[in-house]
Amino acid sequence: MDAIDENDARFAMDSSAYAIQTLPNSSRNSIPTALVLPSPHERPECEPAARTHRYQPYPKRQDCSSSTTRDDAGPLEFQLPENVPEWSAALAQCHTLRLLPTPAPGRLYLFPPTHIFLVNDRMKRVRMIMNWLHVRPAWLARVQGMDSDEASISVQGWRDYLTHSPERGPLNRPTTTFTGRKAQKKAKSANTLLIFHELLPDGVPPLAHFRDYAWFGHTLDHDEPEEQLVSQRLVLWELDELAFRYDFVRLNRHFSKDLTISPEQQLVREAMVFHIWSAFPTRDKMFLDSKPPGDCGLGSLIWRYSIPALEAARQILCQWPNAPRELGSPLVHPPEANNLLVVRHMQQKVAQFYCQTYCKAFQTAPILPSQLPLPFISI
Length: 379
Fold this sequence. Notes:
Blueprint (H helix, E strand, L loop, with lengths): L5 H6 L6 H4 L63 H12 L25 H23 L3 H4 L3 H8 L20 H17 L14 E2 L2 E2 L5 H32 L6 H11 L8 E2 L3 E2 L14 H15 L22 H23 L17
Antiparallel strand pairs: 1-2, 3-4
Helix pairs in contact: 3-11, 6-7, 8-9, 10-11
């Protein structure tokens, strides 16, 4: 990737954040396969401070933390991928405007919602991510040939599969054996697992096989915890990205059905949607074919990536009912010829109109894109 130019630096929400992007192992340049951490032998010694005041009977305790310790809340702590600020603010505005019913109805998910991976048990999270990577090829083939609404399952259904292990038995447990107060819940769980049994007749692998699984070269190897965390965040970023793409296509089809246009014209309109993520290596119009070459798409801080994606989204949204008049004004080419304030305003309007329209159409919150994770780096 070329060096960041002056326009990109002005466009960034925080220009100082670009310092990390110039590092050789920054995801803004290329996704790393290794991380830089201090050697355990370089850990500073913690000596008690000298007492300087008689009313201070005990010396102040110095901070002896190190990023190499397991209990630190520093670089080794698991985090979900960061939200794109304009989109998370737009969704918060939907709650402020009371566009969502209270209490919110349980929605179905075409892909595992990433918040369910926030578990305290590290190896449980590894199990969940490994189970997803295990079913990923078969699941992508399944959703490609089905309507997204029919292929979606509940959040509890995803939990039941992702936490499943061989010790719990096969995926095709008979539903007639359940009795008692929770029989209905257990039967529903068993029916969901049957979906995965059809995709995985041999079930899920033992946890000891997690080293055999990778996301485009990034392995789940707990012997290198820093690299494992980067791999986990990249897997969850892809889940957010895929869910956002399908939600966008779903909403666009919702409005296309109400238009008196031919099927050929509908295909042309839908093809315009795919331009939003055209900077990513993509197969079958929706799925990632390899790891991204850098920070791409609507969440990018790099102007030459974010503006083409933003303009592609604007071209779709301006054709929807009740579109704001600001969406009728196109951005210009080349990207650096655009005014910073105009681009910022367009980002906000696109995110606000999309989120509010989705909430009104489906009475539930959309899945939003997240930022491509930066690696954990400690110098």
